[in-house]
């Protein structure tokens, strides 16, 4: 059973930075593709970024491209999301999840992901 735990959220002013972490329990971390999503109040869950199991390939939502960087440290069973130049529109609960089937790599649909963490709140003020 995979369990994911996010941390690193907080409140920052526009232009600031945060680094989120997602720790994975379970021995399969190094073989699974992972993703970050976010959900703002009253809005649907939105894809942010994803990373292959090897870390060699990444994809981003257009809204965060150039500002956010996804990475992973497999020996530490941890995935990261470095967020720079934050904007008020980035305010949301950020969650990590596992892509269920590796053959679905490239999808931005949250329905293809599972084992969601509890999320960490990111608040950006103007």
Please, could you describe this protein's structure?
The protein is an all-beta fold and 126 residues long. The protein is 0% helix and 48% strand. The chain contains no helices and eleven strands. The protein has strands at residues 3-7, 10-13, 18-25, 34-39, 46-51, 58-60, 68-73, 78-83, 92-99, 113-114, 120-125. The strands form two sheets. Strands 2, 4, 5, 6, 9, 10 and 11 form a seven-stranded mixed sheet that branches. A four-stranded antiparallel sheet has the order 1-3-8-7, with no helix packed on it. The protein is globular, with a radius of gyration of 13 Å. The model has no long low-confidence stretch (mean pLDDT 96).
Describe the structure in brief.
By secondary structure, this protein is an all-beta fold. The protein contains no helices and eleven strands. It is globular.
